[in-house]
Amino acid sequence: MRGFWRLTVAVAALGCGAARADGTNWYAIVTGNGTPIGHAYEETHTRPDGREIVEAQEIDVGETVGASTQLYNKPDPATHMSSRTVIEENAAGRATSMETYTQAGRGWSRIHAEVLSDKAVITRESEAEKRVVTVALPSDVRFDNGDALLKTWDRHAKLEFKNFNVDALAVDRVTIEALGPADVQGRTPALRERFDGAGLLAAARLLVDAEGNIVEAAQPLFGATIIVRAADRKTALQAHPVYRVLPSVMTKSPFLISHDSMLGHIRYRFQFRDGIAFALPATGEQRVKLEDGTATVDICADCGPGLPTDRASLDDALKPTAWLQSDAPALHAIADPVAGLKISDSEKMEMLRLKAKPYMGVVDFTGHYSALETLKRRRGDCTEASVLLAALGRTAGIPTRVVNGLVYSRESYHGVANVFMPHSWTLAYADGKWRSFDLALDKFDSTHIALTVGDGDERSLLAASQLAGLLVWKDMAEVRTAPSN
Question: Which domains are present in the chain?
Fold first, then answer.
């Protein structure tokens, strides 16, 4: 089972901020080669007490021609995915509330944020539960992705601001920098980077017109590029084929990796696209060295230093979240019998992995769901598997995190073999060491390349796919220990 990240989230994150005058602005969503795959629009309505801004995206995604349908030469059914955000502003232009409704097939979620002077009170609701969280807001936080700043942007200077990300339930740090002079149409190429503190989340290429409107945003993903481009209504809504995601997010490996090598020590070397470097995480199995624009990544059973093990970090890895609801009775019913056993934490994680397996009976590559949602749906891919196992670990009193990155498939998968593709798994602090556990693939090996570590949240998932699009494969090799004399 291999996962991919919800494409509508990737599209929404591009943020093609328009002029936001009353009316509707339309956008076409296309692949890097120009194939249309969906549309987006933005509406602005002025009211006596402020404004209402509506942003929406729609796209149809599918897998590929599956074994069950090859005899009939029919593709697997498409899943309609949509996201709609409504922002309410007061007369002073400050956001007072934001609400996002997302649907992937029959699955749905709603996030509503009441924006107060120094915090946002956020209610996340899904078919499984309703949970309220509070996010502190800095005094200079923005809610418009920097749209107003672009209207007066000195293109010789870098813009930097904090922006509230309602989907991530967090505040991003954003920078926008010109990459060169304007073209004959007055459009300036620019780079927009999003950060969580100092950690890079995404880097997108923009075209900003003379009035300060973003008329195009291109986001590299692993194996693909998604572009949101200003268009008229007819162009945006034109008929298009279903976007087959899985073949698009697979990338051929430079070498065929043997089964023995997968269980040993592999060293990877990457360069960074356009010089946009970022720090890869160091896990218990992954060691990273950044030097001269190159990342050297060693992966083996004990290659890495592991995540922090101080009390505050471990306590944080035990907290219930909107994605890892370790305080939920349904999770306690599964985990408590295991937690009480007189066995090691590693053995407990393996038992929890086996207990979680029946809840992953139906493979479903659309959307991204929390641990409780996964229990109810009894379906998902590696993203749901990693979240469910991490939540069960926390419920049993074992600190956990969710890792997002890449993994290798030697055998044919959806008609393609010898490829790397997006994947997620679980880290647990078990028996004094951070170790990886993989519910989706049953076991961890040295082709698991970690790109982000989080709590199963969508921002970490999306960041991994976007960061993977910035890696340029340089080489890889098996590292063998010389025999002793």
Answer: 7-248 (no CATH), 252-479 (3.10.620.30)
